């Protein structure tokens, strides 16, 4: 599972290919910033960035963790910028302020994700997800009914548990019940990828991109749910066409029994309480959501102490020797996806550096002024099918184009669901290709891309019609 996650954020090279075109050196980056787009610093930064992402994209073959090249690239880019400012501008105070701003943005997202990952790991260790999987396996439903059940569960679980975790859970169900039908497994996985990505688009907790938009303060928490109907359309349209190809059969019955460990249900409730705390401190007290998440992490830490003091023990077998260990919250923190978190640091600093140089302002001018916001935001989603949506969305947030609330909702929708167009377009798709070992493949997914694309454009049209009034409302801020 970690390997699948580590391969899921490796597609950013195309995002800034336009930066290399001639004639892109006319951007102004503000009164306090030098325009470095035509200097050796700008060109060198682009080359370093491209090399770093080339290494990221070959991670599967080189086994070089994706965080290593981008973290190194981020440091070199900012050092070069600072050197140029020191030698040509007299000082580098503006550079230092920009770096601190980027680190602050990363720190808030890092701590937020760390708390969320810790809760997910704790629920996984308490067998919450495994119990759900076994219940579905033993249900006795036919393939067609399971197709819809797993799809809708993925759609409604991903807004809370994130789309990757949800996809992996539902894929385990599909593979367990569809052992006798490769076609059901392939269609079920495509269905799950589309559903999980669509479900994650209408919640701040469903995807890192929606979390970034919420934490930036551009869209209020409750406003995200205006995307529910467009997200539902995005899932249901391709699912309708795929459903007709699902075998109308019933899988053989299976007997398997898994029980949740003590405290599992209370941890789920604590996670919901943590989300509530994060929403309340942000909406009513105007504090960063990360404060609520870290407060909620303390709920889990104290509950873990209670489990330990009341004799909760987990049996661990080491060879022929049995040992016991208490519930330890720090074990759950240690199991967070540290490579992904550090990769995210590299992305934030690299994109921030390119923005400081002046490239993002130029791309913003070309996309959002020349093309128009609706066309640009639609293309963001298509780009997300090739390039990972996290750096694409961070680039949009860094550009901060002057858009209405409706347009910010549109780019949030397209960045979230655009990755469904290709199997490599989202963390969920990449993970499931690894989990199914040749059953759900790139070309199997590509066979249904025309229907997924139909759902993509239908969801955009639905948003333009249903939420038309939001296009006259200014964004909350940022």
Span of the ends, CA to CA: 35 Å
- Number of helix segments? 22
Placed side by side, the strands forming the largest sheet appear as 1-2
Give the overall shape, derived from the CA principal axes. Answer: globular
In terms of structural class, how would the helical and strand content be classed?
mainly alpha
**DSSP strand content:** under 5%
Q: Tell me about the biggest sheet?
A: 2 strands, antiparallel
Over all CA atoms, what is the radius of gyration?
23 Å
- What's the number of extended β-strand segments? 2
**What are the secondary-structure elements, in order, as H or E?**
HHHHHHHHHHHHHEEHHHHHHHHH
Mean pLDDT rating: 81
Poorly predicted runs are 1-31, 312-324
Percent helix: 55-70%
Structure description:
InterPro entries: Cit_transptr-like_dom, NhaD-like. The structure is a single chain. With 478 residues, this protein is mainly alpha-helical. It has a domain at 109-218 and 253-334. The protein is 67% helix and 3% strand. The chain has helices spanning 2-6, 40-57, 59-62, 67-88, 93-125, 128-137, 143-161, 163-177, 182-200, 208-216, 228-243, 264-283, 289-309, 329-334, 338-357, 359-371, 373-384, 389-399, 405-417, 427-436, 442-446, 449-466; strands at 313-318, 321-326. Strands 1-2 form a two-stranded antiparallel ribbon. A hairpin with a 2-residue loop joins strand 1 (313-318) and strand 2 (321-326). The longest helix has 33 residues, at 93-125.
Protein topology:
Elements: H1 2-6, H2 40-57, H3 59-62, H4 67-88, H5 93-125, H6 128-137, H7 143-161, H8 163-177, H9 182-200, H10 208-216, H11 228-243, H12 264-283, H13 289-309, E1 313-318, E2 321-326, H14 329-334, H15 338-357, H16 359-371, H17 373-384, H18 389-399, H19 405-417, H20 427-436, H21 442-446, H22 449-466
Helix pairs in contact: 2-4, 2-15, 4-15, 5-12, 5-13, 5-15, 6-8, 7-8, 7-9, 7-11, 8-9, 8-20, 9-11, 9-20, 10-18, 11-22, 12-13, 15-18, 16-17, 16-18, 17-19, 18-19, 19-22
């Amino acid at each position: 599972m970690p390997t699948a996650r580590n391969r899921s954020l490796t597609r950013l090279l195309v995002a800034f290919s336009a930066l290399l075109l001639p004639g892109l050196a006319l951007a102004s980056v503000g009164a306090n910033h030098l325009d470095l787009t035509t200097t050796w610093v700008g060109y060198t930064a682009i080359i370093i960035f491209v090399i770093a992402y080339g290494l990221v994209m070959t991670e599967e073959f080189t086994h070089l963790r994706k965080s290593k090249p981008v973290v190194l690239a981020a440091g070199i880019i900012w050092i070069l910028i600072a050197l140029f400012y020191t030698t040509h501008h007299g000082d580098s105070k503006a550079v230092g302020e920009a770096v601190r701003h980027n680190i602050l943005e990363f720190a808030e997202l890092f701590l937020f994700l760390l708390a969320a990952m810790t809760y997910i790991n704790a629920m996984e260790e308490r067998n919450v997800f495994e119990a759900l999987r076994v219940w579905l396996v033993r249900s006795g439903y036919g393939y067609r009914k399971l197709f819809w059940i797993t799809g809708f569960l993925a759609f409604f679980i991903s807004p809370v548990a994130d789309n990757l975790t949800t996809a992996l859970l539902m894929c385990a169900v599909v593979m367990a019940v569809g052992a006798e039908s490769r076609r059901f497994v392939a269609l079920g996985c495509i269905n799950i990828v589309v559903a999980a990505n669509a479900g994650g688009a209408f919640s701040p907790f469903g995807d890192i991109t929606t979390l970034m938009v919420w934490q930036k303060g551009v869209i209020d928490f409750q406003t995200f749910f205006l995307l529910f109907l467009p997200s539902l359309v995005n899932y249901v349209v391709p699912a309708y066409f795929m459903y007709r190809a699902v075998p109308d059969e019933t899988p053989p019955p299976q007997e398997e029994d898994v029980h949740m460990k003590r405290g599992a249900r209370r941890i789920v409730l604590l996670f919901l309480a943590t989300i509530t705390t994060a929403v309340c401190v942000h909406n009513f007290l105007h504090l960063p959501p990360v404060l609520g998440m870290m407060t909620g992490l303390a709920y889990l830490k104290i509950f873990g102490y209670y489990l330990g003091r009341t004799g909760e023990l987990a049996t661990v077998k080491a060879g022929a020797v049995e040992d016991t260990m208490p519930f330890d919250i720090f074990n759950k923190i240690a199991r967070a996806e540290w490579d992904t978190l550090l990769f995210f640091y590299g992305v934030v600093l690299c994109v921030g550096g390119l923005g400081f140089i002046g490239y993002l302002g130029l791309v913003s001018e070309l996309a959002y002024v020349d093309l128009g916001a609706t066309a640009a935001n639609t293309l963001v989603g298509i780009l997300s099918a090739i390039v990972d949506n996290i750096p694409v969305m961070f680039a949009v947030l860094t550009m901060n184009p002057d858009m209405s609330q409706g347009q910010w909702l549109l780019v949030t929708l397209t960045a979230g669901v655009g990755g469904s167009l290709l199997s490599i377009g989202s963390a969920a798709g990449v993970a499931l290709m690894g989990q199914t070992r040749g059953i759900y493949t790139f070309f199997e997914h590509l066979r249904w891309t025309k229907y997924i694309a139909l759902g993509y454009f239908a969801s955009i049209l639905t948003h333009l019609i249903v939420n038309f009034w939001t296009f006259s409302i200014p964004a909350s801020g940022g």
